[in-house]
Amino acid sequence: VTLPDPTADENSVLGVLAIAGQLFRVSYTKLMLIRTIDPITLLTLYNGIMYLGHTIFPISVRNSAVAVAHLARRTSLHHLFVSQDAGMQRLAQEAKDILAKEDYVVDLVPLPSFGDLYNDSEEGLDIPMGSVKETQRCLILHSSGESSRSYVTG
Questions:
Q1: What is the number of other CB atoms lying within 10 angstroms of the CB of residue 50?
Q2: pTM of the prediction?
């Protein structure tokens, strides 16, 4: 997967579809632990995306595939980081399939793990900062609740 060029004049929106932390769900007979991305890795990813001059769009995992596809289209999102758990993979693939019917391409990118980012390797330490304009969006926040509003922060 090729991510957008950080030296380009226009920034790209990069989506993230993941649950931070660990989610415990209690059912009638089971206690389920869903392992997800840890908060340090997620915040490092966010910082890296902003460092490269792109916009972060954390997409709520409560959205349906139709909603994820709609949000991707509305924000011109073409790269979606997705956690490795089966539920997020299925949701992302369904959204990608919906968009493909409209000839809209979204690349699904695996989320990095803590070990991918924090290790003894010096690979990637020389990547230059992307161009950032004072008026550029750095983060899009969207409520999955009833308000159906997007909030852009700068």
A1: 19
A2: 0.75
